[in-house]
Amino acid sequence: MNELLAPIATYYTDKLRQFGDVPRGVDWNSPESQALRFEQLCKLLPSNSPFSIVDVGCGYGALLDFLAERFDVRMSTCDYLGLDISGAMIEAAARRHADKAYARFERGTQAPRSADFLVASGIFSVRLTSTDDAWDAYIRETLAMMHASATKGFAFNCLTSYSDRDKMRPDLYYANPCELFDFCKRTFSRNVALLHDYGLYEFTILVRA
Predict the structure, then answer these.
(1) How far is the C-alpha of 80 from the C-alpha of 181, rounded, in Å?
(2) Which residues contact 129 (CB under 8 A, 6 or more apart)?
C-alpha cells in the first residue's frame, strides 16, 4: 500500500473498531444516506439479468446487503468481489457475508480480474493531509483502473465542491463535478451521466461502456 493510502486505512480501521459494522463504522451519518448513495450507484446495474461486480472500497460489505435486498442477488445472478485497503474491514465483511457463496472479499486497491461493473462509494472523500494535487491524481488513477477492469461500466461518488463553504472540512476532499464529468467523457466513454440532485453534498458519476 502506498504512503497516500496507509493513513486512510488506519482511519477506517479505527472507525470500524469504534462503531462496528454499521454506517458510522465507514464514516457515514446514517443508514438512510448510505442507502441513498447506493441507489445512485446502482442505476448503472441491470435489473433483470445476471452481472459480475467489483466493489472498490467495500468496507464491511454494506453494498452487498443492498444488492441482496433491492436486486435479489444470489448465486445464479451475481458474482461479487469486495476490495478494501483495511484488513479489518475485509475480515468484518467476510464474517458478515459468510453465508453468501457468490461473494468474496480481498484486501487491495486493484481489481484482480475484469467484471461487468465496478463501483466505488466514499473512497474519494477522506484525504486527511494529502494535497489537492496528490488526491486528484489518486482519483484519476483509480478511475482509469476501474475503466480498464469494467466491461460494461463503472460508477463512483465524490463530495462536491458546491458544498457550503462554512461546512467544508480540511481533511475531506471536495471534487469539482464538472471537471470529473469532462474527464470521464473525454477519456473513457461518450455515455456518462452526472447525478447531482439527490439531496446530499455530493455527486455520482455513471460511466457506461
Answers:
(1) 27
(2) 7, 171
Q: Which amino acid makes up residue 86?
A: S
For 46-91, what is each residue's pLDDT tens digit? 988 999 999 999 999 999 999 988 887 776 789 999 999 999 999 9
* Per-residue cell: 189: 466513454
Q: What separation in angstroms does the CA of 104 have from each of 55, 89, 98, 122?
A: 10, 13, 9, 20
Judge contact between 117 and 153, C-beta under 8 A. yes
Homologous superfamily of 6-208: Vaccinia Virus protein VP39 (3.40.50.150)
Find the angle CA(91)-CA(104)-CA(119) to the nearest 5 degrees.
100
Instruction: Give CA–CA dist 41/54, Å, rounded.
Output: 12
The CA distance from 37 to 43, in Å, is 10
- The pTM score is 0.95
How does strand 202-208 pair with strand 150-160?
Answer: antiparallel
Count Cα atoms within 13 angstroms, Cβ side, for 70.
17
